[in-house]
Amino acid sequence: GGGDKKVKVQFNSSDTLFSTLRDVNFEQVGSHVKARATFLKSVQDEKDGLQGKSVTEIKEYVKKLREVNIQQEKNLLSLHTSIALRLKGAVTDPSFTRRLECEQGLLQGTMATDKYLDHAEDALCCGEPLPRVLRLLCLCSLVNNGVRRHDALRSLLAQVHGPGALATVHNLERLGLLKKQESATSGITGLSSQIAAASISVAAAGSIAANLVAEKVTAVTGWDALRRRLNLVVDASEEERDGDVSYAYSGYAPISARLVERAVRPPPQGWASLEESLKILPGPLFQRTQEPKRRPGPWDITPPVCGAQSKPRRVVLVMFVGGVTFSEVSALRFLSRQQQGGASIVVATTKLTSGEALIGTLCDTLEARPPPGAGAGARR
């Protein structure tokens, strides 16, 4: 046909521009591409002005040419420029900017609850992909310990995307990614009849009610506590964020990166300082120290004692079971490049994924499910 032909291109670290662009924030891609274009133009202009230069200056220029393949760099620059233009079109789209504003407002706690729920409803009615809308609702649920208007949103999801959306919501609820938000007083109201039936004293009833309210408040503000203790949201200028792992998400530091950042520090700034914060996160918490086992033998040679100056950096393996995002990897690369980190970080994972891709794996369209009894009839 007359359409544009798609070409697969393999990127690796030999591409100087790609090795830089893969770790920068999307807002900085254009400036990096422009800087590379300016550099290549300066090299080309220098070639045109070689006439009348000394032999030493010509040798320096030839050395620079050996380090920079001008024609190859121009081809790669053209490719990255095309990608940057497509990226610019995506990130300047009104739907993207509204979604980004909503997500940042959720994490920072600066947006009213009804506003991002209204945005989710608008996105549903405008035909936004189901994983994209559910991703926002899951973020809302995790940050605010549940979603208001949960039942109304379930009905709207079924109307727009069919009954399969309810099966997807059920999958998310089973994993704890999405749930209905309960008011802090709902538990107290339901407890009043139990107190009367058990003839509990007024003082004891007041104590139970106070503890229940405390539990509710703690649950609701768990994200706020975690955000403060781990400094997950960095309210700083772009220049200041460039020196912190939060640059990857425009001011949000991934929890995984913050945990690794603390883990590579020497005691008492390591894991021990995060014990209370880690209790807020779901899942079990354990720490196990493994000592290298060496079997002595005739070939066993004791390594020489190295001085402090020649001490090698530690190698830290960070394993993500289930998947990790590209931005998290970029944040860990940044952390590994920091000299004060004192460790070279190697990332291993079962999958490179994204928020929408993760939600997409849980989507259930009900199309492949046989009707009830179909399997039994087939066996007969």
From TrEMBL:
Signal peptide: none annotated. InterPro entries: Sec-1-like_dom3a, Sec1-like, Sec1-like_dom2, Sec1-like_sf, VPS33_dom3b. One of its GO terms (biological process) is vesicle-mediated transport. Pfam families: Sec1. It comes from the Eukaryota. Belongs to the STXBP/unc-18/SEC1 family. This is Uncharacterized protein. It comes from Hemiselmis tepida. The lineage of its organism: Eukaryota, Cryptophyceae, Cryptomonadales, Hemiselmidaceae, Hemiselmis.
